[in-house]
């Protein structure tokens, strides 16, 4: 599921899991059900094109309504575009 893929990308990018301040393993699921999104430090957007593109993609994967999230095909295309852009930067 695309939402979970966003969580994995966040962990890879930042080294943290979503809602790292939570001690109760059930708490993140409850927060997500309430529509909350985990916080990604704004400095990641300032790192460069790849990081900014990944943060935007993560946030899109975390859209509250499933129909507002990209499909996995769209995720793959966006990742390819982000990585292809790296070669031209």
Describe the SSE topology.
Blueprint: H1 2-14, H2 27-33, H3 43-46, H4 49-61, H5 72-86
How would you characterize the overall build of this protein?
With 89 residues, the chain is an all-alpha fold. Helices cover 58% and strands 0% of the residues. The chain has helices at residues 2-14, 27-33, 43-46, 49-61, 72-86. Helix 1 (2-14) runs antiparallel to helix 4 and helix 4 packs antiparallel against helix 5 (72-86). It is globular and about 40 Å long. The model has no long low-confidence stretch (mean pLDDT 87).
Question: What labels describe this entry?
Answer:
single chain; mainly alpha; 58% helix; 89 residues
SSE order? HHHHH
The proportion of residues in beta strands is: under 5%
- Count the E strands: 0
As residue ranges, the low-confidence spans are none
Overall residue-averaged pLDDT value: 87
Taking the alpha carbons of the first and last residues, their distance comes to: 31 Å
Structural class: mainly alpha
Principal-axes geometry comes out as globular
CA radius of gyration: 13 Å
Major sheet summary line: none
Instruction: Compute the number of helices.
Output: 5
Question: Helix proportion of residues, in percent?
Answer: 55-70%
């Amino acid at each position: 599921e695309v939402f979970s893929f966003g969580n994995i990308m966040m962990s890879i990018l930042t080294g943290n899991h979503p809602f790292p301040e939570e001690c109760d393993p059930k708490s993140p699921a409850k927060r997500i059900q309430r529509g909350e999104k985990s916080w990604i430090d704004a400095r990641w957007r300032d790192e460069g094109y790849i990081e900014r593109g990944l943060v935007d993609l993560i946030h899109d994967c975390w859209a509250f309504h499933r129909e507002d999230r990209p499909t996995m095909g769209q995720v793959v295309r966006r990742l390819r575009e982000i990585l292809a852009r790296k070669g031209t930067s």
